[in-house]
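The protein record minuted underneath.
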Amino acid sequence: MKKFLVFWLMSLAGFSQTTNAFDKANDLYNSGYYKKAIVHYETILESNQHSAELYYNIANCYYKLNEVGPSIFYYEKGLQLSPNDPDILNNLEYAQKMTIDAIQKVPESGVSKLFNKTLNSLSVDGWATRSVGLVFLFVILFLGYYLSHSEAKKRLFFVSSSFILILLLTSLVLLFKKDSLDQSERSAIIYAEETEVKAQPNLRSETSFTLHEGTKVVVIDTYNSNWSKIKLSNGETGWMFTSELKAL
């Protein structure tokens, strides 16, 4: 009991410190001290406290400082936790207008576009939470079917539980698909003001194209930890220094 009380008090103290740091950082931001605000926000990150709001505020600081790479990075981090947040999506769009590279995405079919939109509407945690909720709902409806004595109620519970089961299976498929994509497609933001992307992982190789700060890429391979093979949304690939990227 004493150990539990000590743990609870320590947790309460940690929450209080986080709240104070967040409020202090917000005051600094509102006063125009963006660099100082970032320092306070980062102390919260260092204590392993993460939230879409925190990433959003850090991104806003960098945006005010005209640092396009970090601003896009933290907006993207916020979207990982809250994919449909309108404020983050809106500000990310503004930040992306500050980038130099105009990369056209590979056209998608209607079905593929709808599937990807649905898949990315929630994070892995979001799909997991939804799946758990559907499991509980299915169990309740199934128990209603099993315990009901009325044929009409049994029919209603059966149809409802069958529908929820379909939704549950769909949610699980999307959960595993989203997790698989997140594991295989390691997105990153370019932090270098300008970088040459090579055909091969060495400096003597031919330059395939040039990219600039703030561009989002997908890391598909690495070489000697110094080089990363990246892929653009238009399908182009090449090698660049890993140190010029920041993984999301």
Observations:
- Strands lie at 186-190, 194-198, 207-212, 216-223, 227-231, 237-241, 245-247.
